[in-house]
Amino acid sequence: MMADRAAQSSSLLLRSWLSTPGTIANLEALSGSRIQVKRVGLVLSCVVCLSVSTAATPRSIASLIAEAYQKNPNVHFYEHEIAAARGDRRTAGTWPNPDLSGQIGGKVYNSLGGKYLGTGPVWTVSLTQTLEFPGRATLRKAIADKQIALAQIGLEQFRLSLRNRIELLCYRVLAAQDRATVAREVAQRFRDLIAVLVQREPASPSPLVEMRILEGDAATLNRRATQAQIELESAKLELNLLRGVSMNLPVEVARQNVNLPTLPDSGQLIARADGRNFDLQTRRTELEQQGIRVRLAHDEQWPSVKLGPYTAGENVVDSKRELGLSLSMPLPFWNQARGSEEAAKARLNQAEASLDTAMREVERKIMTAADSYKKELKKLGENTPELLGRLRDAAKLADDNYRLGVLPISTYTEIQSQYLEGTDAVLNSRLDALRYLADLEYLSGEQLHDVDLPGRQKRTLREETK
Description:
3 domains, Outer membrane efflux proteins (OEP), four-stranded antiparallel beta sheet, alpha+beta, two-stranded parallel sheet
């Protein structure tokens, strides 16, 4: 449909361009030159094809999610976070650089009697390497490994959240389109009746009152259609934002089935979440990392040692050379790292308490979301498609009978209102069910439904309301 509209717009633009006198004169001049009219027609055809190609083609939800994985800036942020953590891991696994130091000076020799004997240079050069307490470098590398794991968990957590948000936005787009379609359909029905009533000669005040009722209902429905269009555009803008593309880029979502599966038992979801929930994985990794920090803080009470060769020499009265090993280490008199160890143990206790609280919170959220999802699923029921179809047929039947004068205005407007409200209720229930399902997938860390399904399993709302 979008391509057809683009083609119609392009043809109108071409006709208006060809109708100008300057264009006609230019074409006549071209026809007398070497450029043939066929080539001019080819150029015009290319213009039409380019205009049609700019129209947005319907995209599947899976393709939009794949595009977001590639272009969303936050995905790249988490990928760079992993790269930064790997760089820190490489730094943690390297030895500290050796220290090269040197001294140079002069020496004056005098005898005991004060007689000057000579003057000459003296110098010292040393090369030392810092040797840490055994196992300390291994602990630092283990901490860096946990940081890489945290960054990877963050990336997977964001990808799942991004997938669910895009899927919900796509169904919001489709629901807004359905709301606008139904509202415009009923509003057009009212406008057609108003046009018929205007042509009739009112024999009493009743036809005039009925016409005013229809006009008010048509105005209300126009507002509902406008609100649905605003919601549609808002969802499309947010969809472009998550896809990482230009905000004004047109996007159309292909009609797809709404997959609302039957959930496993809440106990099974909680058991799966214990090992797959991203928040719990993060808390456990942080707990393990903090445990390693406690061991590192305990090892830091033993100082590092600097060891290496040195050489010294002087050239005054005679030439002297000296070779040996130097050893230096701080004496743990004032700073014994006890405060750091106590702080690390306190943070370890905090991490344990935080993990226990997070586990209970995840359990509560899973039970709440599962109960809400089952209620929404029960509210939709298996006869929802038939109900919407019957409401649509009743609305059309009421329109035909009202035109014949066998149906009162109250019954007519009531069935039209029920058609609108029923459609809106089904759309809201489906969106709420999808939202609860997305929460359950996030909490359990498991994909509970597929995005793309075969067309035989369920019918779309547009098919159900026809």
